[in-house]
Amino acid sequence: MNKPSFANQELYHIYNRGVDKRIVFLDQEDILRFFQSMNEFNSINPIGSIYENSFRNQLGNRTPKLITESTNTEKLVEFIAYCLNPNHYHFIVKQISDNGVSKFMQKLGTGYSNFFNEKYDRSGSLFQGKFKARHINSNEYLLHLSAYVNLNDKVHKLSNNNQLGSPTPKLIVSKTSWDEYVTSFNDTTFCKKDMVLKQFTDGLDYKRFAENSLKSILDRKDMLELTIEN
Fold first, then answer.
1. Is the pLDDT of residue 63 over 90?
2. What span, in angstroms and rounded, lies between the C-alpha atoms of 24 and 85?
3. How many CA atoms are closer than 13 Å to the CA of 97, on its beta-carbon side?
4. pTM
5. Distance from C-alpha of 213 to C-alpha of 173, rounded to nearest angstrom
6. How far lies 170's CA from each of 8, 45, 81, 156, in Å?
7. Contacts of residue 15, Cβ cutoff 8 Å, sequence gap at least 6
8. What domains can be seen in the chain, in order of their start residue?
9. Maximum C-alpha span of the chain
């Protein structure tokens, strides 16, 4: 599949999975690191090493600090929604700087792969080639895709009992922006939700839409070409 030509202020569905469908998030530290990378690498300026800046002396029994706001306001993309599953991820992003999507994904993929390979004493590619991308060219596509991404753990029948913050972090299976949409409807969060949520009266209204939309997507596997195989 050819990537679209990325343009500022346009929306894109970005996704990829582990090479050979391998697990890329093995524990809580992994998923925290990837999520922090989503924030810190989203800068037009180099940031150096996340490990050196934020994780030195925080491994072992200590949980890495989760940073939700970057100190650099000049971002490459805006996140609209995301999901992180054991062997793949989905993003909805808006490009806000020239070549922002490509620059961000290069930083994210390289940075996290280096972290993972060092931690688990492996080498080589972690993800299955370059990231995949589709242009989101209609409001209908955006709304249904937001449901698919926010509820992606249900698409793949993953347990909700082991979300980030579970008392059993080794069993963590996914992290999504669902709670930002449903329980933090009017709050400032990691994602820029306004373009979706302004079309709903409250979190419950969006929740009803998303759950009904997901049922339609699961009933029609080809709907909007959203799915990614496990």
1. no
2. 9
3. 15
4. 0.82
5. 23
6. 39, 34, 24, 19
7. 88, 89, 90, 91, 131, 132, 133, 228
8. 11-225 (3.30.70.1290)
9. 49
